[in-house]
Amino acid sequence: MPRDTCDSIQVDSLLDGADADWDRFVEGRPEGTFFHLSGWKAVIEESFGHRCHYLRARQGGEIVGVLPLTHVRGRIFGNSLFSNGFCVYGGPLAATPAALAALDQAAIALARELGVERIEYRLRAPLHPDWPCNSETYVTFRKTIEADPEKAMLAIPRKQRAMVRKGIKEGLASDVDAGVDRLYPLYAESLRNLGTPVVGRRYFECLKSIFANASEVVTIVKDGQPLSSVISFFFRDEVLPYYGGGSAAARSYAANDFMYWEVMRRACEQGLHLFDFGRSKVGTGSFAFKKHWGFEPEPLHYEHFLLRLDEVPEINPLNPKYALMVATWKRLPLVVANTLGPLIARELA
């Protein structure tokens, strides 16, 4: 049944998982992203048990807009709708201003029905000048890459190129893994070291399964020992290394530097043209690392519609409110962090 209407536009909810018409619309919009794809609904619902409401605007039987929403009701971080949950981009994707207005109207009605405190749109470009917007905390790094791997290597700034060459001289090699058996423990160790709870392994398994034809796990090894690993996603002509991590030994061999080079090199050989280095918080080590590769930060605009709050909550590890928790988490034994982490991380959408 239609959820709401705006003029002749009807908005309903996507009931099943992957939807070919939805994905064709996303892929045909210049502002569409991998994180708008319908497969995320199954990933999030199966991994975390959160209810997803994927709103679809139609006009004359044709899709004119989509809005993937994840409902996270948590005891620690509140009750919110995110577009898109566990993703760095999202928000409404609309062909016309009327379609955008219809999606917004339906989202707000849904938020009131669910009793949520806020809606958060994660945007690369702002859409609502009258909504509270955080454009200072997060940036993304995107850059066109050379088709020739040798030219792509030379395009990396000299100091960072030297780190990649160090990994090559150390005899590092890359494997393409069919699953996440080596990726997950390396990623979990890295997050513990940063003081951040890790999501459950089931999430990674769902990502690799549902996006089987649009993902790749690259693991860096030395003498057969895995040092670092990353899962990348593919969308149109873009590659997005998304979740990556390394062991304590990775730094001494420049394994993380070599890992991202291997993702870039493989992307060149596959004819991809854009490398999306993903989101970082301003002023962090991740932010500096990506700048060293010659990428320039682009601000992300996280817009909020507040229903039961007076101001936008600052839920990120840089908030002094969480300093003690972060410091404590860094000291936890890995087995404890990996056991407790998924219980908390499922709220960190």
Structure description:
With 349 residues, the chain is of the alpha+beta class. The chain has two domains: 4-137 and 301-312, Gcn5-related N-acetyltransferase (GNAT) (Aminopeptidase), CATH 3.40.630; 146-272, Gcn5-related N-acetyltransferase (GNAT) (Aminopeptidase, 3-Layer(aba) Sandwich). It is 35% helix and 30% strand. It has eleven helices and 16 strands. The strands form two sheets. Strands 1, 2, 3, 4, 5, 6, 7, 8 and 16 form a nine-stranded mixed sheet that branches. Strand 13, helix 8 (255-269) and strand 14 form a beta-alpha-beta unit. Helix 2 (39-48) runs antiparallel to helix 7 (201-210) and helix 5 packs across helix 8 (255-269). The protein is globular. The mean pLDDT is 94.
Structural class: alpha+beta
Helix content: 25-40%
Distance between the termini: 28 Å
Any idea what the CATH architecture of the largest domain is?
Answer: 3-Layer(aba) Sandwich
- Radius of gyration, in Å, reads 20 Å
Number of domains: 2
Let me know the average pLDDT: 94
- In DSSP terms (H or I, runs of 4 or more residues), the helix count works out at 11
CATH class of the largest domain: Alpha Beta
Counting copies of identical and different chains, the oligomeric state is single chain
The total beta strand count reads: 16
Sheet of most strands: 9 strands, mixed
Q: What fraction of the residues are assigned to beta strands by DSSP?
A: 25-35%
The run of helices and strands is: EEHHEEEEHEEEHHEHHEEEHEHEEHH
Unreliable runs: none
CATH superfamily of the largest domain: Gcn5-related N-acetyltransferase (GNAT)
Give the overall shape, derived from the CA principal axes. Answer: globular
**Which fold does the CATH topology of the largest domain refer to?**
Aminopeptidase
